[in-house]
Design brief:
The complex is a heterodimer of chains A (149) and B (508). With 149 residues, chain A is mainly alpha-helical. Chain A contains five helices and no strands. In chain A, 68% of the residues lie in helices and 0% in strands. Chain B: This is Tripartite tricarboxylate transporter permease.
Chain lengths: 149, 508
């Protein structure tokens, strides 16, 4: 259990709850003659979340100062993979499915473990072409296949 | 028409060639999912929803829904079979419901009886699967008849009970579980309100009008969350794998495990029917029970076959039992069934009491195909155990990027928006951070699925009562359900205050 994360999460959810309650006031009133409009449910939820977040914040003060277990976290690998996934999402539509998938897979394979280029290229191209042709040609689905010039 | 007639119709659907193929693919993928440490049944099912959606695209809606749910349910119970393999061979459970199998299974493997342990697990799972299906067939009709009498107030309280049950038992901290539930409900309110047609929290962003897509969130939280976790905290390299040796169990093994299989199946089934208490809890209780029943309890932990047979039957029976509240009441009791429910809703098929009336081919087709699928699993698992054991060695460096690519493909192929891809990545990070810090994500997904229905029923009930909230307590059935829901949350809390340790369901 991480005290810092739980405090941070407690505050974040508290703010989300507050935001929900405040923003729910702006929802237009119900158009049909019922006592219960579309704003009651979100307001109630927001209020409950605020109470629960306060409860969590209160609980964090009673945490024993826990021993940090020395896990080695591989930020570098994760960041490379995450950023390439983000680029994959951004470029998917302009560059098409086959190229972006191939590039993403190749980068990710090599980030996970260096070397074995031939095998990486083979698997990446098999997957990207295979999925595209199976989906777009065989099943008749629509995917942006290649860049449109 | 009586139940038997419906079941026969179900079999005629299950035996259509494409459905046999779907069931086969489902159980095969499920076994692989169960064997691979790192992807559990929840991520497996979530990842496959878009794939099945594209595969069934050419079929009429109802047939497509039947085929997809046949495949997805196959993944679910197939994973329960596969989970035992790594527990026995590597001492590493493939998913949380197989944790107790490691206790005796690995010991048996060390004594050179791995084959016997694996085949007893398969036989036990098969027996349990069949027993829970018979229970499902017998209970489906009466239960849905009761539920048909329910009005909005009763439904509201029933769904609240489902949520309370799942959050009361999930994770280490109930505060966190409840926060996740409420947060899931809140995410469910984004989009056009179904009752009044008024946009809520959309801020004129067009993609938000239809609400956040359940599929994207589920795939992100479960599948990507787990991938990110493995990338960040590279799991310890797997230990040496035990030799499998002779596959068939001896006569003595069979005799020793017959009673545990029966007890495990019945126990697992009833635990599975309860919302919130899933396969993990069932296998855990079965192990404790077998140790109590055994004439020589000192054998447990040293390779007692009953310690494998009981829990493995129990976790399979529980996954069958969990289908009952999903199909008859429309209340998923666990993370995986919540995802199955989301899949059905995607096909515009509402699980619940009307399912058996409105879409008998989906409901009975699924039930019948589960008989077929269990048989396939038994046939697959006995001779092919050695082949499945090979899957364990799939290198993670190829597996993880491919899982990311599959989830991207799946989400994009169904949604056609890049917005969902960003949401997917965000949910992946969120899923990793939340799970790591004991914020269970299963209640969030469950709440997201149930949220709109809870709200609709609440508002319909309040409209009937002219805004009087007392309708929920003045209605006797609704009152009982609310009391049970409150008890589900309060009892573990009271036990904790008294210093008793509470068994938790980590699987969700």
């Amino acid at each position: 259990m991480s005290k810092t994360f739980d405090r941070f999460a407690g505050i974040a959810f508290l703010l989300i709850g507050l935001l929900f309650v405040i923003e729910s006031q702006r929802i237009s009133k119900s158009s049909y003659g019922s006592a219960v409009g579309p704003d009651i449910f979100p307001i109630g939820l927001g209020a409950i979340l605020i109470l629960l977040s306060l409860r969590l914040l209160y609980e964090t003060f009673r945490y024993q100062t826990g021993t940090k277990n020395g896990e080695t976290v591989q930020y570098k690998k994760f960041i490379i993979i995450f950023v390439s996934a983000l680029l994959y999402a951004i470029l998917l539509e302009p560059l098409g499915y086959v190229i972006t998938t191939f590039a993403f897979l190749l980068i990710a394979f090599q980030t996970m473990e260096r070397g074995k280029w031939v095998k990486s290229i083979l698997i990446a191209s098999l997957f990207s072409f295979g999925v595209y042709y199976f989906f777009a040609e065989f099943l008749g689905g629509s995917l942006p296949g290649f860049p449109v010039f | 028409m009586n139940t038997l007639q419906f079941l026969m119709d179900g079999f005629s659907i299950a035996f259509q060639w494409q459905n046999i193929l779907f069931a086969f693919a489902g159980v095969l993928i499920g076994t692989a999912v169960g064997v691979l440490p790192g992807i559990g049944p929840m991520s497996g099912v979530a990842l496959l929803i878009p794939v099945t959606a594209t595969l069934t695209a050419g079929l009429p809606t109802e047939a497509a829904a039947a085929s997809s749910i046949i495949l997805l349910a196959g993944v679910y119970y197939g994973a329960m079979y596969g989970g035992s393999t790594t527990s026995i061979l590597l001492n590493t459970p493939g998913e949380s419901s197989s944790v107790v199998t490691t206790l005796d299974g690995y010991q048996m493997a060390k004594q050179g009886r791995a084959g016997a342990a694996l085949s007893i697990a398969a036989i036990g799972s098969f027996a349990a699967g069949i027993i829970s299906l018979i229970g499902l067939v017998l209970l489906a009709e009466p239960l849905s008849n009761i539920a048909l009498e329910f009005g909005p107030a009763e439904y509201f309280s029933l769904m609240l009970l489902g949520l309370a049950a799942v959050s009361g038992l999930a994770g280490k901290s109930m505060t966190k579980a409840l926060m996740m539930t409420v947060f899931g409900l809140m995410l469910g309110t984004i989009g056009i309100d179904a009752v009044s047609g008024i946009a809520r929290f959309t801020y004129d962003i067009p993609v938000l009008y239809s609400g956040l897509e359940f599929l994207t969130i589920a795939v992100g939280l479960f599948a990507l969350g787990e991938v990110f976790k493995t990338v960040l905290e590279r799991d310890h390299e797997d230990g040496t794998m035990a030799k499998i040796g002779r596959i068939l169990p001896t006569r003595q093994d069979l005799k020793d495990s017959a009673a545990p299989i029966m007890r495990g199946s019945l126990l697992g089934f009833f635990i599975g029917v309860l919302p919130g208490a899933g396969a993990t809890l069932a296998s855990f209780f079965s192990y404790i029970g077998e140790k109590k029943f055994s004439k020589n309890p000192e054998q447990f932990g040293k390779g007692a076959i009953a310690g494998v047979a009981g829990p493995e039957s129990a976790n399979n029976a529980a996954s069958g039992g969990a289908m009952i509240p999903l199909l008859t009441l429309g209340i998923p009791g666990s993370g995986t069934t919540a995802i199955l429910m989301g899949a059905l809703i995607m096909y515009n098929i509402q699980p619940g009491p009307l399912l058996f009336e409105d879409h008998p081919e989906v409901a009975w087709g699924l039930i019948a195909s589960m008989f077929v699928g269990n048989l396939m699993l038994l046939i697959l698992n006995m001779p092919l155990v050695k082949v499945f054991a090979k899957i364990i060695q799939t290198p993670k460096k190829y597996l993880l990027p491919i899982i990311i690519a599959i989830s991207f493909f799946g989400v994009y192929a169904v949604q056609y928006t890049t917005f969902d891809l960003y949401l997917l990545l965000a949910c992946g990070v969120l899923g990793y951070l939340l799970t790591k810090n004991d914020f269970p994500v299963a209640p969030l997904v469950l709440a997201l699925v149930l949220g709109p229905m809870i709200e609709n029923n609440m508002r319909r009930a309040l409209t009937i009562s002219n805004g009087e909230f007392s309708i929920f307590v003045s209605n006797p059935i609704s009152l009982v359900l609310l009391i049970v829901a409150a008890a589900w949350l309060l009892v573990p809390l009271l036990l904790k205050l008294k210093g008793r340790s509470v068994v938790l369901n980590e699987e969700g």
